Amino acid sequence: MFGGAFALPCTLYNMILDLLIAIFFLFVGIEITATLTHPKQVLLPAIAALGGMVIPASIFLILNPGSQAWATAMPTDLALALGVFALLGKSANPAVRIFLLTLAVADDLFSLIVLAIFYGDQLDMAHSASTLGAAALGASLAIIPKFPVKQVVAILSPLCTFFVIPVYVIAKLSQGISMDSITSETAISLTIARVIGKILGITLFAWLAITLNIVRLPSALKLSEIAGVGALAGMGLTVALVISEVAVESKEIQGDVKTGLIISALISGMVGYIWLKKPLAL
Prior knowledge:
By secondary structure, the protein is mainly alpha-helical. Helices cover 73% and strands 0% of the residues.
């Protein structure tokens, strides 16, 4: 596709992006192991995260049958969600932040499993190393005795939030988006699946888990706040972009996916902020 003078810059460009995403997935791997160590504390957000993946993917496939992009409806972007949550300031419930953090980490774990099972054979060596390999390395490091998990997370968290993710997302979103993508079937389906499906899936699965006595609702949390977390969870860029690049062959459809991710992130962020600013007493 690129030749002559553009070959080296293009290769270097891709290598830099692979390095950035490797740092991100290394951080994800460490976060997964460090966060999901207390089964009783993580069970409710993990079940909710599962609902927040199954329902959006199902809605997307109903609206867009047979599309390769179905898995892009599933991931949650922790950095974006926590960024909007931080805007709530002192009115924010700390228990909601913990629930959101744990849910997003569980979501990352499930997304890695989806990536490995459904798209593992489509990953080339570079993508395998920078995604699944880096996450596995991070998870392995976090279980080593005396490994400085807190110190490493303290370094990688701001690095990923303020540099790695923005640079990677901007680099990917700057390619292949057109005005026609806004009205494309993929973008519309993805927006509906993420904005509505995340709220519905997370709230429904959490309610079922509580109703069936699988887990208890923490006293500091309301079901309406879990629904608000579901709204914020509709924001998903980084992992969804990785999945799109692997799963979708058409550059046009990849552009449609990017458009849908941007629109759903904007809507979900606004809805989540408003919802959690004055949650209903449920």
